[in-house]
Design a protein that fits this description.
By secondary structure, this protein is an alpha/beta fold. It contains eight helices and seven strands; from the N terminus they run αααβαβαββαβααββ. The protein has one domain: Rossmann fold (3-Layer(aba) Sandwich).
Length: 223
């Protein structure tokens, strides 16, 4: 089982102070110093992104992609390897610095930015947006703003792939990472996107972890 104790402790401490994003930088700094474990850092591309691509390969020539909450960079590198001109952002400067260090010859543009207040130049700027596991580490009250901002990154005809932990509304919210309900994800369609597919599945991919219920959803923005 992954050790999430320190991440949960920091999340609780910062959220109590009203700083809902401050704990990520602290955790990455502790991770860099070898003092804490980054529970989501698998150091490989998301298997559900790879699996999606096998069945839905996309044209990438001349197209741009954006990775939301890019962590240590593996998904962004994969999008760049497929041919997208790729931008990746994370709230944590340390995560961004570590990504650049891990991939010294990268073509990805790594940048520190806040999903809750992203650069205005990213609005309607990307052909493919990938969001995995960021919404579920933001408290529920902040997810709508995050979802609206993600929806706003797509240019006309652009695709958004979202992967998140899943629960029923009647299930307890539990501990961070907080699984999302299908109703929460429906905010992407309220924000103007068309839902092209919605999968609800049990993920058995993570070795040593119990099965996790996840959603994988694909959306398109068309003017
Ligand atoms: C659970 S991790 C997932 C990382 C990666 N997407 C993955 O699936 O392995 C969430 C990531 O989002 C980043 N993050 C959290 N809130 C953010 C925000 N408001 N803006 C940008 N990045 C954020 C965190 O620093 C962390 O790297």
């Amino acid at each position: 089982m992954k050790d999430r104790a320190r991440a949960r402790e920091l999340a609780a401490e910062f959220n109590r102070k009203g700083d809902v994003t401050g704990w990520f930088e602290q955790l990455y700094q502790e991770g860099e110093a070898g003092k804490s474990n980054i529970p989501w850092a698998n150091l490989c591309p998301n298997p559900h992104l790879l699996d999606f691509w096998k069945s839905h390969p996309q044209p990438t020539a001349g197209k741009s992609a954006l990775t939301v909450g890019s962590g240590l960079g593996d998904d962004a590198e994969q999008l760049a390897a497929w041919g997208f001109r790729t931008t990746a952002f994370d709230i944590s400067e340390t995560a961004i610095r570590t990504s650049r260090k891990r991939f010294p010859n990268t073509k990805v543009e790594y940048t520190a930015a806040n999903l809750l207040d992203p650069p205005s130049s990213w609005r309607r700027a990307f052909h493919f947006v990938f969001e995995a596991n960021t919404l579920q580490v933001l408290p529920a009250a902040f997810r709508l703003r995050a979802i609206e901002n993600i929806a706003g990154f797509l240019c006309s005809g652009g695709l958004l792939l979202v992967i998140a932990r899943a629960r029923e509304p009647s299930d307890p919210e539990g501990q961070m990472p907080w699984p999302l309900t299908r109703a929460e994800l429906s905010a992407f369609t309220t924000a103007g996107l068309e839902e092209l597919s919605f999968e609800d599945f049990l993920d058995l991919e993570d070795p040593g972890e119990p099965a996790v219920r996840r959603f994988r959803a694909l959306y398109r923005f068309t003017i």
